[in-house]
From TrEMBL:
Higher taxonomy: Bacteria, Pseudomonadati, Pseudomonadota, Alphaproteobacteria, Rhodospirillales
Keyword Nucleotide-binding included in the entry's annotation: no
Pathway: Carbohydrate metabolism; pentose and glucuronate interconversion
Protein's UniProt name: Mannonate dehydratase
Gene source species: Azospirillum lipoferum
Record function comment: Catalyzes the dehydration of D-mannonate.
Catalytic activity line of the entry: D-mannonate = 2-dehydro-3-deoxy-D-gluconate + H2O
Amino acid sequence: MKMTFRWYGDTDPIPLSHIRQIPGMTGIVSAVYDVPVGEVWPVATIQALKTKIESHGLALEVIESVPVHEDIKLGKPSRDRLIDNYCATIRNLAQCGIKVICYNFMPVFDWTRTTLDMTLPDGSTTLAFDTETVEKIDVNQGISLPGWDASYRPEELRALLADYAEVDEETLWRNLEYFLKRIIPVAAEAGIRMAIHPDDPPRPIFGLPRIVKDRADLQRLLAIVDHPANGLTLCSGSLGASCKNDIPALVREFAGRKRIHFAHLRNVKINEAGDFHETSHRSADGSLDMAEIVKAYYEAGFDGYARPDHGRMIWGETGKPGYGLYDRALGAVYLNGLWEGVAKAAAPEIDGGK
Ligand code: DNO
Ligand code: MN
């Protein structure tokens, strides 16, 4: 398992020199942020990002994310040009030594939360989702939830939601299939592994379809193009927001089939109403058994990339909610500790089970 850390580029308040000091940190997960969605990422821009990261002794082998244009998800005629561009970006990334591309196929919104700063008993703050709050929102009146307002103007959002009125789950599957059949051969030839991130939370919201939310969806997705280049980002916190998903079992199955290329490791505290909040990574603090999850990866022979995904805001830190330095650093070290424990128990003769 190669531990990595997400970094948002030059505007990220966390310096690479600090990330490098996290024990066991091997690389950065990042993206090109100044190219509009749907356009091609130039080699020179990717190379400059990589050179900067490498100058801090860290690797850049995973991209999160290359966003998928809404017209592709909607199946609009413009998708062919946009998919050509996506393929060009895949080739350019491969040329710069990238190995894994994370992406998602969630209509309109990426992860959805109702608050970005719920206070936990210890005074830290965290991201949370309250089902009732979301159910009360009338999308036609406009949506006001934290983190969203920046992405779309109200009239743009209304137009986009109107376009999606025609897209049910099966249509979205067909559009995903069309996309995968075009991009996976290109990725396979370039030596890139595509890794879809599951929907977060793993259920439809605001009447928008969500199709990457449970075991059956993951199986269906992998079968569309049955090749290692068509793989998964297994996000424990996203899938784990549904009590129906058994995360260690999913890891055993899909890492066993060598189809997990990127592990997002984080914990969530869930209830049966579907509400949840993110917690520290420690098993005792949330609903997921992180030790069992890490053990499942170890036993499946996982040698891909992992990251602590989100963290709480602690020690007075400010910045992008979920993406502070301290709690993610603690998470990374805790997860590496779990790995070392499992590895040593399995093979005590190998130093630290490395
Ligand atoms: C949530 C995060 C996501 C993720 C994107 C990937 O768990 O990991 O924001 O980065 O959905 O496309
Ligand atoms: Mn994730």
